[in-house]
Amino acid sequence: MAVAIDSRMRGPILVTGGTGQVGSELVKSLALFGDVVAPGRDEMDLANAESVRAAIRALQPRWIVNPAAYTAVDKAESEPELAFAINAEAVRAIGEEARGIGAGVIHFSTDYVFDGTGSAPYLETDAVAPVSVYGASKLAGEQALAESGAGHIIFRTSWVYGARGKNFLLTILKLGRERETLRVVADQHGAPTWSRDLAEMTAHVIGRCEDGSAQEREQVLEALAGLSGVYHAAGSGETTWHEFAVEALRLQKEREPGQRFAEVEAISTAEYPTPARRPANSRLDCGKLKSRLGWEMMDWHESLRKVLAEMAE
Predict the structure, then answer these.
(1) Residue of 122, 134, 161, 231 with catalytic role
(2) Is the pLDDT of residue 313 over 90?
């Protein structure tokens, strides 16, 4: 467990998208390290790079943690400029400003940087080839951050969900009560990732860099430099959207034995056409995360049980 330190002389931690699935969990998990600031859109508009720069210059954070993104995968196909503004140009601004003030950056990316045609879990070193505007914009953000010269870590994740917000699990539980049958894609493979697991992983990494003491920024950046790079961080195990839906409804049925839930029918991706292509293989190999950062992501079965239990509280 990381030790809380006095951040008053070294700046707060800036978290983007503080009301989002991952951002809201980060605000809680990073409070251990002192002041956490999560500006709203009126204070830091990610669609406007100059707004991003101004907010960072005013705040002078020691860390910038960026889970916020344009995530409307299908809508991005018709709004590429906005997707790239938020997912790439804002990240470029974050990196350049972070380098200027000596702040570390933790940025979240996606499995959509791959084309999904591989037959094994993707390694960080595998060739990237996004097949959607969303994936291309997220890859551009990774590249912009790397080019900025800021000390940084990029976490690629997949299928993020939690007890709040908008996500696949909450949609399935809602529709499962309302409909007799649900048709869910069964030929896309990956692993659900709990937003809280990502937040606790981030706290673990910052704790390693700050080492429980009020170090100067230069010392923290030196520690970060030894860990910098791209890491895959997705739930352990693997499943399909169909299997995830079936398991979620099965577990919820145990909690609500009197409630009728929909039957879940397996369909192919071809039977559920969307404007943007989805990777058939979203599996990510997280071995580097464990070996270099000492963190193992939670198995998706375990996280699902924890999320459902939290929702019942």
Answers:
(1) 134
(2) no
Establish whether 134 is a catalytic residue. yes
The single residue listed with the structure tokens 């070193």 is: 125
The pTM for the full model equals: 0.94
Q: What is the pLDDT of residues 97-127, one digit of tens each?
A: 999 999 999 999 999 999 999 999 999 999 9
> Tokens 């409307």 belong to which residue?
72
pLDDT value at 234 more than 70: yes
Per-domain residue ranges of the chain: 13-167+193-236+283-293
> Between the CA of residue 49 and those of 78, 94, 119, 172, what are the distances in Å?
21, 9, 38, 36
Q: What Rg do the C-alpha atoms of the chain give, in angstroms?
A: 19
The pLDDT tens digits for 261-272 are 999 999 999 999
Residues 28 and 196: their CA atoms lie apart, in Å, by 9
Q: Are 56 and 12 in contact (CB under 8 A)?
A: no
- Assess if CATH 3.40.50.720 describes domain 13-167+193-236+283-293: yes
The pLDDT of 83-107, averaged and rounded, is 97
CB atoms within 10 A of CB 101: 16
Cβ-count burial 262-296 (b if 16+ within 10 Å, e if not): bebebbeeeeeeeebbbbbbbbbebebbeeebebe
Percentage of the chain beyond pLDDT 90 is 90
220, 104 contact by CB (below 8 A): yes
